[in-house]
Amino acid sequence: MLPSGHQNTKIIKSKKEGKQIMSVFLTSVSSVVVIVLIVALGYLLKKYNWVGDSFGSEISSIITKIALPASIFTVVMKNLTRSSLISLSTELVFPVLGVVIGYVIAWIMVKVFKIKRGRRGIFINAFVNANTIFIGMPLI
């Protein structure tokens, strides 16, 4: 039989763990609920003809040309300081090196595949920066 003090400590730990698990669960549920509500809103807006068939391309254009750059600018202005940039400088060596190597490989691929002169830039950027925004935004 364990001393009563040890049992109380074990109960307290399990209550804390239970609260943490519940917190994670509620955060997950709330994230899913937001997505479901946005999908439902889109369905209702389309059902009642508040948006047309071209809305998908229009909203995509608004997001990529206005909202995304504004979001990035705001976050950078708010969170990036000289001291944080200096502290990150040693950690940025490998990502920068990876991008440079990617451009070198892309340039070699342009020569190997004999990409036309007018399409080289888009080919190189598609090769090197294809998923940059999908990886970078969650990090911000």
TrEMBL record:
Main localization, broad class: membrane
Lipid bilayer topology: Multi-pass membrane protein
Keyword Transmembrane part of the UniProt annotation: yes
Alphabetic keyword roster: Cell membrane, Membrane, Transmembrane, Transmembrane helix, Transport
Annotated compartments: Membrane
Membrane-traversing stretches: 21-45, 92-110, 122-139
Coiled-coil spans in chain: none
Protein name as annotated: Malate permease
Organism: Ligilactobacillus acidipiscis DSM 15836
